[in-house]
Design goal:
The protein has a five-stranded antiparallel β-sheet with strand order 1-2-3-5-4. Strands 6-7 form a two-stranded parallel ribbon. The chain is an alpha+beta fold and 289 residues long. It is built from ten helices and seven strands. Strand 1 and strand 2 form a beta hairpin. Helix content is 43%, strand content 14%.
């Protein structure tokens, strides 16, 4: 079972612990979600297919509390500017390395000059996804490294001269690496990953989120399968968008039933799909085989 993934030039994601405990013999924690859900009926684990279908039902219908019965604790090392985005999600317990108690190591995230991105023309807070290289990018890299090297030397000299660490650290850039422990339940972790693995998230935080998911997936495979189907690779329409769709589809159907192939959907998934279409005034007819 993989427990650590290196990210970027100096970062990593390490799985420290799980609740319930994952073992080499029984690494799947899906059963804890199933047990929590079935306590309402006084039953427990059944056969694998029924348990998988239950997890998919829970995820599809946003019954979230059973997913909160599984927890993960990670040890993360990342640049401070990534960590501050990470900690915006106030659904986890966190304890971080302190520059007041200990000297900050000489470890700084410095971008590869060929991975420096341009400011997005559409999104004020984002960059364009395609890296570029120019003289400006090369100069930025050179100055970045020179300023960091000088700044860390000043910091180190200040600490050695008995300047308080809590003040000396204020010299250092937000690209310095930090470390912290991060404990979070599965429900909130999946919500976090939905946002931070999205293509609109900053590239550097995407890389760390993807590493977390890579460690998570073998431990809760059925939960992750349902997450990908119903959250990660799906989207919703607002009320106004649904009204637009309803108006556009109405003349195409002309009162007839819409014939679609639902063979890729399960029984309850087909029922749920029919209910959704009925809200648009569409009756569903199964495609004849």
């Amino acid at each position: 079972m993989q427990i650590k993934i290196n990210v970027g030039p100096g970062g990593f994601v390490r799985l420290v612990d799980t609740m319930p405990t994952a073992t080499a013999e029984s690494s799947s924690l899906d059963s804890a979600v199933v047990q929590a859900a079935r306590i309402s009926t006084g039953s427990g684990i059944k056969d694998p297919e029924k348990d998988r279908n239950l997890i998919r039902f829970l995820m599809r219908n946003r019954h979230t509390s059973p997913f909160e019965m599984v927890e993960f604790k990670f040890h993360l090392k990342m640049p401070i500017f990534v960590a501050r985005q990470w900690m915006r999600h106030r659904t986890a317990s966190i304890n971080e390395y302190s520059g007041r108690y200990a000297e900050i190591p000489d470890e700084c995230w410095i971008p590869n000059p060929y991975d420096i991105r341009t400011q997005s023309t559409l999104n004020k807070q984002s960059s364009d996804p395609v890296p570029y290289y120019s003289e400006d990018a090369g100069e930025f890299y050179t100055q970045f490294k020179a300023i960091y090297d000088k700044t860390y030397k000043v910091y180190k000299k200040a600490v050695n001269s008995n300047v308080a660490r809590e003040q000396a650290r204020t010299l250092l850039p937000q690209a310095m690496y930090t470390e912290f422990y991060w404990k979070i339940d599965l429900h909130n972790l999946l919500n976090f990953l939905k946002l931070r693995m999205d293509k609109h998230a900053q590239k550097e935080i995407q890389e760390f989120a993807e590493a977390v998911y890579k460690l998570l997936k073998p431990l809760v495979p059925n939960c992750c399968e349902a997450f990908e189907d119903y959250m990660l690779d799906s989207f919703t329409f607002c009320k106004q968008e649904l009204l637009v769709l309803k108006a556009a589809l109405k003349p195409l159907i002309n009162g007839d039933k819409l014939i679609v192939d639902c063979s890729s959907l399960g029984k309850t998934e087909t029922t749920d799909f029919q209910l959704k279409l009925s809200k648009l005034g569409i009756d569903l007819a199964k495609k004849e085989s």
